[in-house]
Amino acid sequence: MNGKLFVISGPSGSGKTTLVNHVLSKVENLRFSVSFTTRSMRAGEVCGEHYEFVSREEFVNMIERRSFAEWAEVHGNFYGTPRAGIQKYIEMGVDVILDIDVQGAKRLRGAFEDAVFIFVVPPSLEILERRLRDRRSEQGKDISIRLGMVKQEVSCSKCYDYIIINNEMDVAVENVEAVILSNRLDEGEDSGRMLAAAREVKTENVYGPAFLSKFGLT
Ligand code: 5GP
Q1: Residue 107 pLDDT more than 60?
Q2: Which of 38, 58, 207, 209 could be disulfide-bonded to 78 (CB atoms 3.0-4.6 Å)?
Q3: Could you give the number of structural domains in the chain?
Q4: Range of the domain at 181
C-alpha cells in the first residue's frame, strides 16, 4: 500500500510549523517533506532540516530539470516540493506531510488525487497579527506583506478537506492527528474517537459567515 500525502496550508503566523512538528513527534510512519527555498535563513533554522536553502539560479535550474512536484513564488521568494523526496516515501508506504502555500496545494490537488488537504487558521486576524509581531522573525515590511495575503489565503480554504482553528495548540495537534489516523482507517487502524474528531473539522462544519467574518471576508 502506497503512503498518502497530507498537505497543510495556512497563513503565516497560523502556527503551522509548530503544529506540524508536534504531529510528527506523535504520529508514526509520517515524514516531513523538506522544501527548497530561495528565502534567507532565519535564526535557528538548519539547512536540510527546515528547508534546503538555495540560490535563485539553483532553484531555476531545478524547475528546468522538473525536480519539483510543485513550486510557487510566495512573499517574493521561491519555494518548491522536491518530487523525488515525496515519491520515495510514498512508494515505501510512508505518509508524507507537506507545509506549503495555497498555490502549491492547488497544483498538487490535480496530481495526487487521494491527497488530504488541511487548512490551519488562527482564531482571528487580530491574533494572527499579534503572533507575527511577537515572532520577530520578519521585518515590519515583511509582516505587512504577510498580513496582506491573509484574506486571499483564507478565501482559498473552502477547497481544503479540513479546517483546523489553531486556538489551543494541544487541541489543534489532536485534530490533525485525528485527520491523519482517520484517513488511514481502511488500513485497519479503527478508532471511533478519531473519526468523530476528524468529522468535526471537515470544511462543511467550519466554513460559513461566522468563520469568514473573523478574517474580514463576507
Ligand atoms: P516561510 O517563509 O514562513 O517559512 O514560508 C512561507 C510560505 O511558504 C508558507 O505559507 C509555507 O507553507 C510556504 N511553503 C513552504 N514550502 C513550500 C513549498 O515547497 N511549496 C509551496 N508552494 N509553498 C511552500
Answers
A1: yes
A2: 38
A3: 1
A4: 5-33+94-213
